[in-house]
Amino acid sequence: MSATKLLVLGIVHISGGAHGYQVRSELQSWRAETWAKIKPGSIYHALKKAAADGLLTEHAEPGNSGPERVLYRATARGRDEIVELVRDGLRRTHDPDMLNAAIAMLPMLTRSDAIAHVGERVARLEAELVVRAEWQEHPHRDIPEHIPEHVREQAELWAGHARTELEWAKSLSKRLSEGAYTMADDPGSWQTVPDPLKMHL
Fold first, then answer.
1. Which of 15, 16, 78, 201 has the highest Cβ tally under 10 A?
2. Are 93 and 118 contacting, i.e. CB atoms less than 8 angstroms apart?
Protein backbone atom coordinates (compact mmCIF):
# COMPACT_ATOMS: atom_id res chain seq x y z
CA MET A 1 0.00 0.00 0.00
CA SER A 2 2.86 2.42 0.74
CA ALA A 3 4.12 2.24 -2.85
CA THR A 4 0.63 2.98 -4.18
CA LYS A 5 0.20 5.81 -1.69
CA LEU A 6 3.52 7.37 -2.66
CA LEU A 7 2.88 7.19 -6.40
CA VAL A 8 -0.68 8.49 -6.14
CA LEU A 9 0.36 11.44 -3.96
CA GLY A 10 3.32 12.11 -6.20
CA ILE A 11 1.31 12.13 -9.43
CA VAL A 12 -1.27 14.49 -7.93
CA HIS A 13 1.47 16.83 -6.73
CA ILE A 14 3.58 17.00 -9.87
CA SER A 15 0.41 17.44 -11.95
CA GLY A 16 -0.63 20.43 -9.86
CA GLY A 17 -3.95 18.67 -9.35
CA ALA A 18 -5.53 15.63 -11.00
CA HIS A 19 -8.70 13.56 -11.28
CA GLY A 20 -8.66 9.89 -10.39
CA TYR A 21 -8.77 8.87 -14.03
CA GLN A 22 -5.77 11.08 -14.80
CA VAL A 23 -3.76 9.51 -11.96
CA ARG A 24 -4.66 6.04 -13.20
CA SER A 25 -3.77 6.88 -16.82
CA GLU A 26 -0.44 8.41 -15.83
CA LEU A 27 0.57 5.40 -13.74
CA GLN A 28 -0.49 3.06 -16.53
CA SER A 29 1.71 5.01 -18.96
CA TRP A 30 4.59 4.48 -16.51
CA ARG A 31 3.71 0.74 -16.42
CA ALA A 32 3.60 0.99 -12.64
CA GLU A 33 1.50 -2.18 -12.45
CA THR A 34 4.60 -4.17 -13.45
CA TRP A 35 7.19 -2.64 -11.11
CA ALA A 36 5.06 -1.53 -8.16
CA LYS A 37 2.18 -4.05 -8.40
CA ILE A 38 -0.40 -1.26 -8.50
CA LYS A 39 -3.98 -2.26 -9.26
CA PRO A 40 -6.51 0.24 -10.70
CA GLY A 41 -8.90 -0.19 -7.79
CA SER A 42 -6.17 0.55 -5.26
CA ILE A 43 -5.52 3.93 -6.92
CA TYR A 44 -9.01 5.22 -6.18
CA HIS A 45 -8.90 3.79 -2.67
CA ALA A 46 -5.56 5.52 -2.06
CA LEU A 47 -6.96 8.85 -3.29
CA LYS A 48 -9.98 8.65 -0.98
CA LYS A 49 -7.86 7.56 1.99
CA ALA A 50 -5.32 10.34 1.39
CA ALA A 51 -8.12 12.91 1.24
CA ALA A 52 -9.63 11.56 4.46
CA ASP A 53 -6.20 11.81 6.11
CA GLY A 54 -5.73 15.43 5.06
CA LEU A 55 -3.00 14.68 2.52
CA LEU A 56 -5.16 15.72 -0.45
CA THR A 57 -8.02 18.15 -0.91
CA GLU A 58 -11.10 17.27 -2.96
CA HIS A 59 -12.76 19.77 -5.30
CA ALA A 60 -15.96 18.83 -7.12
CA GLU A 61 -16.04 19.87 -10.78
CA PRO A 62 -18.86 19.51 -13.31
CA GLY A 63 -18.22 16.75 -15.83
CA ASN A 64 -18.13 17.48 -19.56
CA SER A 65 -21.18 15.36 -20.27
CA GLY A 66 -21.79 13.40 -17.10
CA PRO A 67 -21.65 13.50 -13.31
CA GLU A 68 -19.33 15.70 -11.29
CA ARG A 69 -15.66 14.75 -11.12
CA VAL A 70 -13.35 15.17 -8.14
CA LEU A 71 -10.13 17.12 -8.58
CA TYR A 72 -7.46 16.22 -6.04
CA ARG A 73 -4.64 18.53 -4.95
CA ALA A 74 -1.81 17.81 -2.54
CA THR A 75 -1.81 19.67 0.77
CA ALA A 76 1.34 20.77 2.60
CA ARG A 77 0.97 17.63 4.75
CA GLY A 78 0.64 15.58 1.59
CA ARG A 79 3.85 16.98 0.16
CA ASP A 80 5.64 16.29 3.45
CA GLU A 81 4.29 12.73 3.36
CA ILE A 82 5.68 12.22 -0.15
CA VAL A 83 9.14 13.24 1.05
CA GLU A 84 8.98 10.89 4.05
CA LEU A 85 7.81 7.98 1.89
CA VAL A 86 10.62 8.54 -0.63
CA ARG A 87 13.16 8.58 2.20
CA ASP A 88 11.69 5.38 3.64
CA GLY A 89 11.71 3.66 0.26
CA LEU A 90 15.35 4.52 -0.34
CA ARG A 91 16.64 3.28 2.99
CA ARG A 92 14.35 0.25 3.51
CA THR A 93 15.72 -3.04 2.19
CA HIS A 94 13.70 -6.11 1.05
CA ASP A 95 10.80 -4.04 -0.32
CA PRO A 96 11.31 -3.74 -4.10
CA ASP A 97 7.89 -2.18 -4.74
CA MET A 98 8.62 0.66 -2.35
CA LEU A 99 12.12 1.13 -3.72
CA ASN A 100 10.78 1.39 -7.26
CA ALA A 101 8.18 3.93 -6.17
CA ALA A 102 10.84 5.93 -4.33
CA ILE A 103 13.05 6.00 -7.42
CA ALA A 104 10.09 7.25 -9.48
CA MET A 105 9.64 10.13 -7.02
CA LEU A 106 13.33 10.68 -6.26
CA PRO A 107 13.31 14.37 -7.33
CA MET A 108 11.03 15.18 -4.38
CA LEU A 109 14.17 15.10 -2.20
CA THR A 110 16.97 17.61 -2.05
CA ARG A 111 20.25 16.32 -3.40
CA SER A 112 21.91 15.99 0.02
CA ASP A 113 18.83 14.28 1.48
CA ALA A 114 18.73 11.74 -1.35
CA ILE A 115 22.44 11.01 -1.01
CA ALA A 116 22.06 10.53 2.74
CA HIS A 117 19.22 8.02 2.45
CA VAL A 118 20.81 6.10 -0.40
CA GLY A 119 23.90 6.00 1.84
CA GLU A 120 21.80 4.50 4.63
CA ARG A 121 20.65 1.79 2.20
CA VAL A 122 24.28 1.08 1.31
CA ALA A 123 25.17 0.73 4.99
CA ARG A 124 22.26 -1.63 5.67
CA LEU A 125 23.08 -3.82 2.67
CA GLU A 126 26.74 -4.00 3.65
CA ALA A 127 25.82 -5.00 7.21
CA GLU A 128 23.41 -7.67 5.96
CA LEU A 129 26.05 -9.10 3.63
CA VAL A 130 28.52 -9.34 6.52
CA VAL A 131 25.99 -11.35 8.53
CA ARG A 132 25.30 -13.53 5.49
CA ALA A 133 29.01 -14.17 4.95
CA GLU A 134 29.41 -15.23 8.59
CA TRP A 135 26.45 -17.57 8.24
CA GLN A 136 27.93 -19.13 5.10
CA GLU A 137 31.19 -19.84 6.95
CA HIS A 138 29.35 -21.70 9.72
CA PRO A 139 26.06 -22.81 8.11
CA HIS A 140 25.30 -25.84 10.26
CA ARG A 141 25.37 -23.80 13.45
CA ASP A 142 22.26 -21.89 12.44
CA ILE A 143 20.27 -24.42 10.39
CA PRO A 144 17.62 -26.29 12.39
CA GLU A 145 17.70 -30.01 11.76
CA HIS A 146 14.27 -30.02 10.06
CA ILE A 147 15.34 -27.53 7.35
CA PRO A 148 16.87 -29.19 4.26
CA GLU A 149 20.48 -28.27 3.64
CA HIS A 150 19.73 -27.22 0.04
CA VAL A 151 17.62 -24.35 1.39
CA ARG A 152 20.94 -22.53 1.67
CA GLU A 153 20.56 -21.89 -2.05
CA GLN A 154 17.92 -19.32 -1.14
CA ALA A 155 20.53 -17.48 0.88
CA GLU A 156 22.91 -17.61 -2.07
CA LEU A 157 20.22 -16.13 -4.30
CA TRP A 158 19.44 -13.33 -1.84
CA ALA A 159 23.13 -12.54 -1.38
CA GLY A 160 23.53 -12.25 -5.15
CA HIS A 161 20.61 -9.82 -5.33
CA ALA A 162 21.99 -7.84 -2.41
CA ARG A 163 25.45 -7.50 -3.97
CA THR A 164 23.92 -6.28 -7.23
CA GLU A 165 21.68 -3.84 -5.37
CA LEU A 166 24.62 -2.60 -3.32
CA GLU A 167 26.60 -1.87 -6.46
CA TRP A 168 23.62 0.00 -7.93
CA ALA A 169 23.06 2.06 -4.76
CA LYS A 170 26.71 3.13 -4.63
CA SER A 171 26.52 4.08 -8.30
CA LEU A 172 23.34 6.14 -7.74
CA SER A 173 24.96 7.96 -4.82
CA LYS A 174 27.94 8.79 -7.03
CA ARG A 175 25.73 10.07 -9.85
CA LEU A 176 23.76 12.25 -7.45
CA SER A 177 26.98 13.63 -5.99
CA GLU A 178 28.10 14.54 -9.51
CA GLY A 179 24.90 16.49 -10.16
CA ALA A 180 22.69 13.97 -11.95
CA TYR A 181 18.96 14.69 -12.12
CA THR A 182 16.97 17.79 -11.17
CA MET A 183 16.42 17.52 -7.43
CA ALA A 184 14.11 19.47 -5.10
CA ASP A 185 16.66 22.21 -4.40
CA ASP A 186 17.49 22.70 -8.09
CA PRO A 187 15.83 25.26 -10.38
CA GLY A 188 12.84 23.82 -12.23
CA SER A 189 12.27 21.02 -9.74
CA TRP A 190 8.94 19.38 -8.90
CA GLN A 191 8.94 21.25 -5.61
CA THR A 192 8.46 24.49 -7.52
CA VAL A 193 5.16 23.39 -9.07
CA PRO A 194 2.85 26.39 -8.50
CA ASP A 195 -0.18 25.98 -6.29
CA PRO A 196 -3.22 26.52 -8.57
CA LEU A 197 -5.28 27.87 -5.65
CA LYS A 198 -2.71 30.55 -4.78
CA MET A 199 -2.41 31.56 -8.42
CA HIS A 200 -6.02 32.77 -8.40
CA LEU A 201 -5.84 34.72 -5.13
1. 78
2. no
- The count of other CB atoms within 10 Å of the CB of residue 147 is 10
Which helix H or strand E contains 18, and what residues bound it? strand 18-19
For 98-145, the pLDDT digits (tens) are 999 999 999 999 999 999 999 999 999 999 999 877 766 665 555 555
Question: What is the CA 180 to chain-centroid distance, rounded?
Answer: 19
Return the CATH number of the domain spanning residue range 2-103. Answer: 1.10.10.10
Give the DSSP letter of residue 192.
G
What's the angle, vertex CA 180, arms to CA 29 and CA 194, rounded to 5? 60
For helices 76-91 and 111-137, angle between their N-to-C axes, nearest 10 degrees: 30
Give domain limits for the chain: 2-103, 109-177
pTM equals 0.85
